[in-house]
Amino acid sequence: MRTGQVFISHTSDMATFPAVRSYVQAALDAVGRAGMAPIDMRYFAAREGRPADYCRQRVRGCEIYVAVVGFRYGSIVPGEAVSYTELEFDEATAARLPRLVFLLAETASPPEGLADSDRDAVERFRRRLRDTGLVVREFASDSGLELEVFHALTEEVARSQLRTVPRQLPAAAAHFAGRSAELALLDRLVSAGADAAATAVIAAISGTAGVGKTALALHWAHRVRARFPDGDLYVNLRGYDPGPPVDPEQALDGLLRALDVPFERIPAEQDAQAALLRTLLNGRRMLLMLDNASSADQVRPLLPGSPGCLVIVTSRSQLSGLVARDDGRRITLGMLPPREAIALLRAIIGAGRVDAEPDAAAELAGRCAYLPLALRIAAEQATARPQATLAELASELMAGQDRLDALATPDDDETTAVRAVFSWSYRQLRPPAARAFRLLGLHPGPDISIPAAAALTGATSAPVIRRLLATLTSAHLLEQPMPDRYRFHDLLRDYAAECAEADEPEEERRGAAHRVLAWYLDAAMATRHTLYAEHRGERDNREQDGLSLTLAAYDQALEWCQTELANLVSATRLAASTGEDEIASQIPIALRAFFQLRMPFADWLTTHDMGLSAARRLHDRAAEAALLGGLGGAYNYLDRPEEAIICFRQALDIHRETGSRPAEAMDLVNIGGVHVALQQFDVAISTLQEAITVSRQVADQNSEGHALENLASAYQNLQRHDEAVDCLHQSLAIFRETGRPYGESLALAGLALAYLSLERYDRAAEFCQRSLAVQRAIGDRLGEAWALGTNADILLATGHLTEARQSWQEALAILENLNHPDASRVRARLVATATADPATTLTTEPGALPSPAPLA
Q1: How confident is the model at residue 791 (pLDDT cuts 50, 70, 90)?
Q2: What's CA 369's distance to the chain center, in Å?
Q3: Strands of 329-332's sheet, edge to edge?
Q4: I need a labelling partner for 70 at 20 to 30 A (CA). Which of 9, 96, 184, 726 fits?
Q5: 805-828 pLDDT tens trace
Q6: Cα-flanking dihedrals φ and ψ of residue 189, to 5°?
């Protein structure tokens, strides 16, 4: 709704304090500055009718809700149990308005009588506002509040213009029949949940593999999705895939991205991610489908914390914890009743053929054990052979089942029936498609792309592999969840692997696995060449089988790594477990640039641990040192400096042992950088000076530039600003000469900070703006935050308080969403300057930002 109106809600004390300009007036002025129309309810009581109804009506007519809350709870609404301010907040929540909340700081001292003597009610309300995660800022002055409200409004308007409604539900099955009782139960569940409006509604659909949990969930979700105008989200949690399930952090990352949260604003910690998701879902009506969950613990962090949303979970597990603790409603699926099984056959095969042979159709359904997955595959076979009678098809299926019966245990009827259907469909395939089916069962990851499938099968062109994949998909032996990506149902994956074991010689199985693992390594190397400018001149000369992959564009390389991450982790694991130690050690090395940019720490550590073991089995000292360096980088980002230094020192020992002097120089840079971060400046300086000496001896300008820049950071912290400037100018010249914009941006930011310390403000501002331009061009958000902090210090030192606070706000937004400890420093600066006169020139403390430079 685009009304341009902003509802100003406030506690009564905010309308009269401060005396010169009240906080309410400051908020009204901010709304006017933003070009919007404020709705001020101070005089609404004169209207006729019930005040509560009129108040709710005015809230719903607005586009944005703003609350200014002090220390007085206010009058209770007639006929209600809450104050007008809290009623307005409740109505804004129910109306799903964007809510911007500002709390008077505890340090503020309103005059006698403007705060409740008994503050229990207002404190409860303030706690409630904090717990929602909606508090934008605290304030202590009218000018500070005006600035905060203005910026919050302009940011919210910008977000709303870019915001999209996610519609992520995969397509429902083309043919669906039966499950009438379960559908009715789901309908009642969502209707009851909407009436109760106490919390999110959770439907947990459980049952054995192949019973149709996902088909039911998608069929029903598409039927009710119109009830959720704010969109729908889908996550495949891979609870029963061959690799590990999706961890909650990965799932949260995907959900937050779908809600238009930029990568750099997604917190690093799971609890913070879950809190942000609950905040974003609060007040929205959205549908979440969490498919193939392994446990309640995997699901719980992904749940909304407020009413309005519907969550559908599918799992083989009973998810008892979700039912007991989170009020989930379990729907357990069994085999289809015979009548519904025949109805599914009729929907796929056609009513004419099924009704013409009712007994044969019933026998066919029985031979499939009334399991939906088996029924669909059998029906597809009937559709593909229109000249055959259903009796003939049932007879063929029975012959295959007789062969399997001898191997079945007494309680294995369902498994035997399913395998019989699989075997029947498999035998109908032409040899090339049958071979592709078998070999795809050897793929280690949850899904596969066309180029990877070509490498696995040895296909020599895209048309060839596309035809094979299309054949398998049309036979319902393979799924295509999105364009150019394919996956097995887990039962079919197991069966395909069985077929490969039985029908493919061991040499061919090993060759296929090697081809796809080598393809993943080659593709990962291609992303490394793109993401690391200094590696573009390298090219791996490994022979390629299958289709080549070109990832010349920076964004394309990042997107490929993100999409294939689960497959790359699985490929590393398979390589490490099958003697492909070279590949196991090289994949994580190739992914180092991606890990540093996106920081998926669990996968970073997992792959590097596996790779390190593989490198040690190979006695590959170069790979071992590279992987130790990668682990050290991860530990450093995770604020585990002691472990980081151990890894860097072990890498240093290897490089000294093997005589790799350029690598030795970079190890010293990394070790020195950690000592700077630990404020161990004497050790840092001696280590970095040694790094410079080694770098110059071997003419490694990259290491020299980073050593000089880290050394300048140590000097800057020790107030040795002239020495810092000298080091930084040397570093800047090196990075410009060698064409390394990342290093150039660090040197420019360091010069801005050094010149600020020397009170040479024009030079400081010049270098700061140049640094910001480079950082934004290369996507270095952390460096951008540090430079924004320096920019704020420069503005403050030159008397531009309002602009300085704006720059700090921009820095804080980045740092908070990166979960970076420097956020507390910026927050402290904002609090310290909140009550200052904008025309006053304040002293600043240069050096608070940026932090020591990130490791090279």
Answers
A1: very high
A2: 40
A3: 232-236, 287-293, 310-315, 201-206, 329-332
A4: 96
A5: 888 888 887 776 555 667 777 888
A6: -65, -50
- Dihedral of the CA atoms 9, 15, 21, 24 (nearest 10)? 0
pLDDT 10s digits, 722-780: 999 999 999 999 999 988 888 898 999 999 999 999 999 999 999 999 999 888 777 67
Give residues with Cβ within 8 angstroms of 512, minimum separation 6: 439, 442, 456, 457, 458, 504
Quote the tokens at residue 387. 């000249």
Residue type, 632: G
How far apart, in whole angstroms, are the C-alpha atoms of residue 74 and residue 56? 17
Answer yes or no: is pLDDT of 78 > 90.
no
The H or E element containing residue 138 is: strand 135-139
Question: Helices 581-590 & 621-637, crossing angle to 10 degrees?
Answer: 40
Distance CA 198, CA 193 (A): 8
pTM: 0.67
SS3 332: strand
- CA 662 from centre of chain: 36
Only one residue has tokens 């200094």, namely: 534
Between CA 841 and CA 119 the distance in angstroms is 38
Cα(98)–Cα(373) distance, integer angstroms:
44
C-alpha span between 340 and 328 (Å, rounded): 27
pLDDT of residue 837: 52
> Count of alpha carbons within 13 Å of 183, Cβ hemisphere only?
15
pLDDT digits (tens, 9 = 90+) for 565-604: 999 999 999 999 999 999 999 999 999 988 887 777 889 9
Chain-centre distance for alpha carbon 766: 36
What stretch of H or E contains 67? strand 64-69
Q: How many CA atoms lie within 13 A of 333 on its CB side?
A: 31
> Strand, helix or coil at 325?
helix
Distance in angstroms (rounded) separating the CA atoms of residues 147 and 801? 11
39 half-sphere exposure, CB direction, 13 A CA radius = 22
Q: Which two tokens stand for residue 835?
A: 């009550």
The burial of 709, by beta-carbon neighbours within 10 Å (0-12 exposed, 13-18 middle, 19 or more buried), is given as: buried
d(CA 824, CA 820): 8
Does the pLDDT value for residue 544 go beyond 50?
no
CB neighbours of 523 closer than 8 A, spacing ≥ 6?
451, 549, 551, 560, 564
Q: Is the pLDDT of residue 708 over 90?
A: yes
Helices (H) and strands (E) in the chain, counts: 37, 13
* Torsion angles phi and psi, residue 232, rounded to 5: -140, 145
CA 142 to chain centre: 38
Q: Are 590 and 521 in contact (CB under 8 A)?
A: yes
pLDDT at 841: 42
From 79, 124, 90, select the one nearest 9 (Cα to Cα): 90
CB 710 within 8 A of CB 748: no
Burial class (CB in 10 A: 0-12, 13-18, 19+), 211: buried
Contact 344, 379 (CB under 8 A): yes
Least confident range of 47-51, 74-78, 228-232 = 47-51
More confident residue, 118 or 689: 689
| Backbone φ, ψ for residue 283 (5° rounding) | 85, -5
In sign, the C-alpha dihedral spanning 780, 785, 791, 793 is negative
Secondary structure class of 76 (helix, strand, coil): strand
The distance from CA 15 to its chain's CA centroid, rounded to whole angstroms, is 42
CB-CB contact of 63 with 97 (8 Å): yes
| Two structure tokens written together for 627 | 């992987």
